[in-house]
């Protein structure tokens, strides 16, 4: 069950059918999501391009208001990230 390689890991449906989790499973109410596409991880890119993509992801990230216990300020022009913990 705890396999990092997604190609070797069992599905959520298989995990819920496992005896260890069977008490939590409800076969009449088990939504199924689309498979996760991780093909981007197989791209052969230079390190600088990966850094650029990660930075873009950080800058464009919009946290859900429910999870706003940390304030994140991003200044794209200065390429830095500031974190402020809130009470």
UniProtKB/TrEMBL annotation:
<keyword id="KW-0418">Kinase</keyword>
<keyword id="KW-0808">Transferase</keyword>
<protein>
    <submittedName>
        <fullName>Mitogen-activated protein kinase 14A</fullName>
    </submittedName>
</protein>
<dbReference type="InterPro" id="IPR011009">
    <property type="entry name" value="Kinase-like_dom_sf"/>
</dbReference>
<dbReference type="GO" id="GO:0016301">
    <property type="term" value="F:kinase activity"/>
</dbReference>
